[in-house]
Amino acid sequence: xxxxxxxxSLFWLVIGLAIAFYSRKYSLGTLSSxxxxxxxxxxxxxxxxxxxxxFLQQIPGKQNALKSLWANRKWLAPxxxxxxxxxxxxxxNFLGFILDTFFLTAFLLRVMEPLAWKKVLAGATGATLxxxxxxHLWLEAQLPVGFLGF
Length: 150
Fold this sequence. Notes:
This protein folds into two domains: about 1-70; about 75-140, no CATH class. The longest helix has 22 residues, at about 1-25. Helices cover about 70% and strands about 0% of the residues. Helix 1 (about 1-25) packs antiparallel against helix 2 (about 40-55) and helix 4 packs antiparallel against helix 5 (about 95-110). It is an all-alpha fold.
């Protein structure tokens, strides 16, 4: 089975590299103004990178090293952060920028990296005041005030 995985990953590696190589004949553009070859180039490069990872995973003796690289990771962290950002966006107009940002930061500091309440409150207050200063005072952006009026 591993031999088939190695062969198929080599096949997809060649295909990804070919896509990335031939997409260069179209203009890649820049990050701010991508050209018609930008997306095919990124797709080919991503395909080649993923195929290379699969190929390297199949090398005898390397499997334990790659498994230990990903061991003991917090796999629930990204979904929790995404869900909290969605709740943040939904509640932003109702709670206002200051309250909503404070609650989001406090939640993330308490749940994602469990800290003492003093540190959570200090960090959430500092992050909220800092972001308020940057967006409202410095950049003069209009921020939602919420139902409390601040």
